[in-house]
Automatic annotation (TrEMBL):
Assembly mode: Component of the replication restart primosome.
Similarity annotation: Belongs to the helicase family. PriA subfamily.
Organism of derivation: Dechloromonas hankyongensis
Protein name: Replication restart protein PriA
Annotated catalysed reactions: Couples ATP hydrolysis with the unwinding of duplex DNA by translocating in the 3'-5' direction; ATP + H2O = ADP + phosphate + H(+)
Biological role stated in the UniProt entry: Initiates the restart of stalled replication forks, which reloads the replicative helicase on sites other than the origin of replication. Recognizes and binds to abandoned replication forks and remodels them to uncover a helicase loading site. Promotes assembly of the primosome at these replication forks.
Amino acid sequence: MPVLRVALDLPLHRLFDYVAESATPADVGRRVRVPFGRGEKLGVIVDVADASDWPVDQLKAAGEILDDLPPLPRDFFGLCEFASTYYQAAFGEVVMQALPAGLKRLDPPDRRNGRAAKLPAALPPPELTGEQAVAVAAVDPAAGFAAHLLHGVTGSGKTEVYLRLIAKTLAAGRQVLLLVPEINLTPQLEGRVRARFPDCGVVSLHSELAEAARERNWRAAFSGEASIVLGTRLAIFTPLPRLGLIVVDEEHDASFKQQDGMRYSARDVAVFRANQLKIPVVLGSATPSLESWANAQTKRYRMLTLRERANPEATLPTVKLLDTRRMVLTEGVSAPLVAAIQARLERGEQSLVFLNRRGYAPVLACPACGWVSRCKRCAANLVLHLADRRLRCHHCGFEHHIPKACPTCGNQDIHPFGRGTQRLETWLHEQFPEARILRVDRDSVKSRKQWEAVLERIHGGEADILVGTQMLAKGHDFPKLTLVGVLGADSALFAADWRAPERLFAQLMQVAGRAGRAELKGEVLIQTQYPDHPLFASLVAHDYPGFAAGQLQEREQAGFPPYAFQAMLRAEAPEMADAIVFLKAAAALPVIGEHDSVLIYDPVPMKMARLANLERGQLLAESHSRPALQAFLPRWREAIESLKAPSRLRWHIEVDPLEF
Ligand SMILES: Nc1ncnc2c1ncn2[C@@H]1O[C@H](COP(=O)(O)OP(=O)(O)OP(=O)(O)O)[C@@H](O)[C@H]1O
Ligand SMILES: [Zn+2]
């Protein structure tokens, strides 16, 4: 009797066997209903075998095998196998998370067909610049696997390179997967892709799609009917029968890293997948991650460079530092910045004031007794939001009304401390009463619709001053924007996290890159008390390579990634002591002694030690060898699984952690 080996959505590192009289090898890759416990589950058939490790007469019989979809292909299982092994995730969970919800349900609802979206008119493509042409020619969809790092300064026309590569790939009859960090922030890109390829079937895949739309798009991608798939990180697991090119836009962006469930990097999985399918992958950014940059330096990735802005009228903006030690600030803003904004108003140009902190003020405080608004559930302050008069935790969502007096001493004179975008907006309104000011952050722009409306206002010239967080820094092209002012950058300059300089540099270079993208010359003014910091020197010189070289040298000396390979074991529990005891036990497991080249550090509380009433600790495992770490991790994970832990303790392993 044929035995089905079935992947189920369970955190267990094994398959489940069932018997099925009429099953054939052609059923591999199909979904199947199987009895499980007292109920039923939907799984995916990974193998049809003649035997089982279990006595066959004790196996239960599988239920219906669904054939509404073609079977999932072998390379899809190969991809899931890789992700499961590399990230220490259960194979069944990896397989099932790749499917849209509607295909995982035992009783899927009926689906109507959606209407086709209206297409914008196709524009004739611009003539490529010399650098763009070189980059386009360097990527050959027919030449097998190659990983390319497309390093192009802001406004250098990376998108046009992607579009030409997409055209080449489509001409060869293949599909393209274009990954973007956050689909909501990239309606411009989506519009450009649809306009350029109106007849090719472009579908998007991201978690904010309604369930039915996501399933429809997924099916179109899987059937090969859609030739271009535009998606966020989860789209990397979509089975695509004719895939010929993967592009990862803004490859440095942290959104490519999934931070819960299976903690994977879609960028890294993309490189694996391209290698598996023998196709090219292009990672694009003005500020590549140092991992990718190092790979390009060692020639594992091929470097493609765009040094100039694509628009022949545009040049890179001038970056100047405003030394605030010698300036009087009003509400955190210096006189030269005010004057620069004023000058833009007079010329009818746009300004952007960047402050990467939303809310009115980061904390409410009592000067009499020292009380500060803390979250009851997290090791964090409650942020003051005056717009809707709330105190709000940006980590767990806890909310509270604003107290009229200090809850500890009764003092009526409590103050907001520090400033966020709301406070800056309020002050700018007072300072420039005639200006049209638009605040853009996650409080003012919550949905894609709102975001599209905001973009329309900016492009329509209906805003003079933009105030915003990093939402405004990513990939936008606002031709009338000629001034970018940066506030509050210093707080990240001396952060304990050794990745902080990389993030800060990328953020500042990206936001600076919004200025002067058309014929109007751009200017960037950065307020700082540390104008001599080397990070700023690289920024002023638009010198990403210089900055990267310095950072990589420091990391090599300190033995940090990419010169070491890391995995983090994290445990969370109501009491920190429980988490630490568990981590100590994990650090003392005998299996560690069998892996000399893996170093286990001491357990420590996480930087944000409490989140939503759970105390969190972590334990770092590190090796100078990736294979050594990978050989160690499954054995360590199995040993940890057999440790006794308090019932409310949860743990996970994160490979290549970004946050500490
Ligand atoms: N070959 C070209 N000739 C003229 N203009 C071009 C050309 N290629 C691109 N552009 C224009 O240059 C501008 C910048 O292009 P694009 O937005 O693709 O840059 P980018 O490299 O993605 O920038 P960023 O990293 O800042 O998002 C756009 O307005 C685009 O239409
Ligand atoms: Zn909280």
